[in-house]
Design brief:
Blueprint: H1 6-19, E1 40-44, E2 47-51, H2 55-72, E3 93-98, E4 106-112, E5 139-147, H3 155-175, E6 180-186, H4 187-196, E7 200-202, E8 207-209, E9 214-222, H5 226-229, H6 233-243, E10 245-250, E11 253-258
Parallel strand pairs: 1-11, 5-6
Antiparallel strand pairs: 1-2, 2-3, 3-4, 4-5, 6-9, 7-9, 8-9, 10-11
Amino acid sequence: MHTIHLDSCRAQQEDWYKEAAFDPINFLIVGGHGMKFTPLTFTEGRFTIRTLASEADKLAAYQLRHKIFCEKLRWVPALPNGLEIDAYDRQGILLGPFWENDVLLSTLRLLKGNQAYMLEKEFKSLLPSNFKLYKSGETAEVTRLATLLPLMKTHESHKLALDMTFKGMYLWSIANGVRFLYFVVERAFLRLMTMRGFPCKALGPVLLFGRGKRECVAVLLDWEGFETNSLDKSKARYINWLRGIQMRQVSEQVSVHSIEGNEQH
């Protein structure tokens, strides 16, 4: 079996971006000042949700992203190696839920407040011209949120994979002192998150974006809004499930075990 190494993949990707006149951002050195964060691992039912640290985990994320952003959404060109990697992966934090056979079902990337955001460049057109991003230690940008759904349909994994990703996003934010999350989503996806009870607000107009011409919008999520949304009985159950964990910190690694791990939502 041919072995794929991330360094060579990144080099291939960066060569493509140079040929396409991509203006690379200033990379932050992995492990440097900009990369300090608390890793996350938790189990719930038949899922394991964790920050992706191993080469195998990262390759699984890049392959999944290629299926979604290159082949399905066509936001970026497909590449022969089947991996979607960009400049931000040098500084990004990957997170995702694994099914019991260690298959990655969904993934997202987080960029901390002292790092370059895609909303400052690639997605800048989705913000009002006079809008100023608030960036600090309590902010992060969520990018490259990708899920196998509806490409893969198995009863429980189909039902819960995306919600497990949301739960991981919430717990990572709490563990790392992040209150505000910026991200760009399709309009239908924003409706889904609002129905779930996520305290989101659109920052700009809905615009057709990418090669696939999808209706997209820039969004800000403020976790403190959960306090208000939890008063809504239709949303309280989901929010309580999202927060219904016991957390303990061990050797700088956050381990989380669900109280309602076997309940389906």
